């Protein structure tokens, strides 16, 4: 919801035509102010926060990129995919192979092209996109749940390849991922040594900024994509393929293209994952990862970019936070002391959260946030009445939509 | 040739077990329009309860209680969650079952820990021979039991009032409801039957030649997914054919793995998925699934 008003001109605000004008103008400066404040906080954070939070932050940024990508596919175009882990793996492995050095590791003979990491990152994203494009003709033919299960196949095939193709992937034990580097500036502990305001900027601090930039770019791209013509076409196609094709939407074409975009997002998320962990191993890219991503977008709210961000923060930070504060949280502790391990506690919580969200609040965290802001907005008005955009920005026609629809013909 | 026959036999017996699990998927889908991702953990739950209980109360009672526990878990899931979501989108339903699956699986894996539980099958791990063709006794009994169960299921599906009610509601839920068929009851029964079938399959899947109850039993249920899909999600006959096809393909790939070594070790575990993709390429609704028609 908040997304609709941040950058859109006042006329495009679809917060309901009934809202009185003063309320709208008050919001119009409050929102950007809050956003700028948030950005400043995010930029200044590495100066104050310890390394653990920065590392968690980079992992979260990676998850945000991946979750936005999956949400475009599942939430906005209605294609259930469990193959996200596979595309992440393609990105991560390509990056590691292209930018990694050749070398032997024990018995395994590892190959590597040793190209600059930025090349590795770009090619990783492109290859993940290519993998998505190759799979998309099959995906476009399959309806709903058949696609969900068929995409399951990619995950298992991916794991098998990761385990077997030792020269590239390092095999069962995986291999180390090279540090990121941009024009001679390494995102590592040295090269060059860097101090900002007396704070040493080491790997964690540098990666934080990299993650912030990539996540922000991913966010803005998705927002623009959805607000424009492709977004409307996708959502029409999701709600009714027949109606969409009658309106002149190339259904198959859009399905294939969104698969491409989504898997490129996954590829970037995979590269960031490799950077965040520092290595890749087959077991990281199993079905569990796909399910975690699905949990992110469901908890956040299907079809909402902001929701994907919220869900990604929640799901990817929770286990790490649990791990760190294991002794402070009741029921969580070491296996020996009879408590739950941190990962287990987090998984119980995700599982329960998914069930509860689908049962009681299908719009997810984004829906809850929307309700809260809605309460602020109309103190005396219809709080209980759900705003029309509860299923994503454009799922239902609202008074402000017609001009944009006209432009698609 | 001997090796081929022996692999074929192994494949058929494995396929019969896959067919049991796949039948569960299919009837749940027919009755409540849900693709159940909880099946893996239900299977593991069955195996776990049988293995844990057989120490204290003996093998046969443990099997019965294990089956009951699994069926009870299935009906609890149906009553508490699925039943409340009737009419929701297929994707949300699938995702909700994934949520349930995460909870159940986490608990089971936590309980299993790192030790391997064994089910003390009275028939042990010996194998049975016809001439030079061998098959483990466990698998032979599995095949016989599965065949009986599947036959009973098809008869019930065709002639019992439950079967008729279920086919009617799968055909057209609204009309069936108007005719006085209680949709909730049909769906609950379907989940119970699926739970029972999964528990029976679990009993044999954790016996020879596989080693005891480990979280890998979960992956086996996932391999039954392709069986259900390639037969067609709404076709019970398809589940049977799909199960056998997947079982045979997997057994062959495992048996000839020396010749298939260029594809990597453990290739047989991936074969079901590859078969499924190939079939779906040519028939997007599976071999026997109802084609979706779009009329405007």
UniProtKB/TrEMBL annotation, chain A:
Q: Where is the composition biased (Low complexity)?
A: 8-23
- Name the UniProt key words of this record, in alphabetical order: Cell membrane, Membrane, Transmembrane, Transmembrane helix
Q: Provide the transmembrane region boundaries.
A: 32-49, 55-74, 81-98, 118-138, 145-165, 207-226, 258-278, 284-302, 309-326, 346-369
This protein's GO CC annotations: plasma membrane
Tell me the compartments it is located in: Cell membrane
Query: Quick one: where's region Disordered?
Result: 1-23, 377-409
Q: What is this protein called?
A: Amino acid/amide ABC transporter membrane protein 2 (HAAT family)
TrEMBL record, chain B:
Task: Classify the protein's membrane topology as the record does.
Answer: Multi-pass membrane protein
Which keywords does this Swiss-Prot/TrEMBL entry list? Amino-acid transport, Cell membrane, Membrane, Transmembrane, Transmembrane helix, Transport
Subcellular localization: Cell membrane
Listed GO CC annotations: plasma membrane
> Which Gene Ontology BP terms does the record give?
amino acid transport
Which Gene Ontology molecular function entries are recorded, alphabetically?
Answer: transmembrane transporter activity
Superkingdom classification of source: Bacteria
Q: Where are the transmembrane segments?
A: 6-27, 57-77, 89-109, 140-157, 188-207, 227-248, 260-282
Family recorded in the similarity comment: Belongs to the binding-protein-dependent transport system permease family. LivHM subfamily.
- Can you name this protein? Amino acid/amide ABC transporter membrane protein 1 (HAAT family)
This protein's species is Blastococcus xanthinilyticus
């Amino acid at each position: 919801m908040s997304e609709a008003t941040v950058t859109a001109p006042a006329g495009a605000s679809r917060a309901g035509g009934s809202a009185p004008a003063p309320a709208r103008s008050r919001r119009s400066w409050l929102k950007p102010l809050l956003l700028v404040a948030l950005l400043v906080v995010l930029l200044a954070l590495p100066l104050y926060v310890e390394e653990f939070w920065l590392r968690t932050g980079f992992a979260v940024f990676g998850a945000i990129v991946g979750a936005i990508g999956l949400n475009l596919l599942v939430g906005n175009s209605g294609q259930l995919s469990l193959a996200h882990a596979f595309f992440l793996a393609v990105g991560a492995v390509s990056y590691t192979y292209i930018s990694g050095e050749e070398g032997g590791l024990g018995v395994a003979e590892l190959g590597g092209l040793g190209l600059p990491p930025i090349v590795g990152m770009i090619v990783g994203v492109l290859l993940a996109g290519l993998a998505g494009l190759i799979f998309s003709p099959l995906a476009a033919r399959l309806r709903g749940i058949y696609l969900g299960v068929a995409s399951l196949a990619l995950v298992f095939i991916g794991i098998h390849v990761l385990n077997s193709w030792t020269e590239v992937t390092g095999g069962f034990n995986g291999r180390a991922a090279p540090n990121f580097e941009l024009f001679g500036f390494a995102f590592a502990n040295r090269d060059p040594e860097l101090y900002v305001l007396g704070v040493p900027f080491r790997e964690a601090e540098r990666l934080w900024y990299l993650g912030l930039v990539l996540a922000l770019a991913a966010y803005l791209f998705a927002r623009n994509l959805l607000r424009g013509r492709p977004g409307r076409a996708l959502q029409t196609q999701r709600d009714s393929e027949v109606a969409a094709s009658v309106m002149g939407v190339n259904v198959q074409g859009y399905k294939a293209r969104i698969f491409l975009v989504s898997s490129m997002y996954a590829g970037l998320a995979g590269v960031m994952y490799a950077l965040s962990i520092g290595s890749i191993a087959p077991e990281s890219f199993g079905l569990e990862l796909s399910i975690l991503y699905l949990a992110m977008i469901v908890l956040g709210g299907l079809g909402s970019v902001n929701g994907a961000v919220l869900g990604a923060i929640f799901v990817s930070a929770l286990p790490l936070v649990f791990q760190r504060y294991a002794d402070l949280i009741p029921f969580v502790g070491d296996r020996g002391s009879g408590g739950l391990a941190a990962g287990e506690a987090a998984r119980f919580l995700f599982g329960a959260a998914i069930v509860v969200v689908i049962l009681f609040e299908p719009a997810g965290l984004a829906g809850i946030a929307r309700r809260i802001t809605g309460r602020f907005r109309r103190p005396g008005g219809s709080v209980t009445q759900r705003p029309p955009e509860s299923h994503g920005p454009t799922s239902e026609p609202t008074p402000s939509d017609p001009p944009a629809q006209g432009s698609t013909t | 040739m001997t090796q081929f026959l022996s692999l074929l036999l192994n494949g058929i017996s494995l396929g019969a077990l896959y067919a049991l699990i796949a039948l569960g998927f299919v009837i749940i889908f027919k009755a409540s329009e849900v693709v159940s991702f909880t099946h893996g953990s239900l299977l593991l739950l069955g195996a776990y309860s049988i293995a844990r209980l057989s120490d204290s109360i003996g093998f046969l009672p443990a099997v019965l209680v294990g089956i009951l526990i699994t069926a009870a878990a299935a009906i609890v899931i149906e009553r508490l969650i699925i039943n409340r979501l009737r009419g929701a989108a297929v994707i949300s339903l699938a995702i909700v079952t994934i949520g349930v699956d995460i909870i159940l699986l986490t608990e089971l894996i936590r309980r299993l820990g790192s030790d391997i539980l064994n089910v003390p099958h009275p028939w042990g791990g010996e194998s049975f021979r016809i001439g030079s063709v061998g098959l483990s006794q466990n698998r032979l009994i599995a095949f016989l039991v599965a065949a009986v169960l599947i036959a009973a299921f098809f008869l019930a599906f065709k002639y019992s009032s439950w079967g008729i009610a279920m086919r009617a509601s799968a055909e057209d839920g609204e009309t069936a409801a108007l005719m006085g068929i209680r949709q909730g009851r049909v769906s609950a029964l379907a989940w119970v039957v699926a739970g029972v079938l999964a528990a029976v399959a679990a009993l044999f899947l954790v016996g020879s030649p596989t080693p005891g109850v480990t979280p890998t039993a979960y992956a086996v249920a996932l391999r039954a997914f392709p069986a259900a899909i390639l037969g067609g999600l709404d076709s019970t006959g398809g589940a049977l054919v799909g199960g056998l096809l997947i079982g045979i393909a997997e057994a062959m790939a495992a048996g000839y793995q020396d010749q298939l070594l260029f594809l990597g070790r453990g290739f047989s575990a991936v074969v079901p998925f590859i078969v499924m993709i190939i079939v779906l390429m040519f028939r997007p609704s599976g071999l026997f699934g109802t084609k979706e028609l779009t009329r405007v």
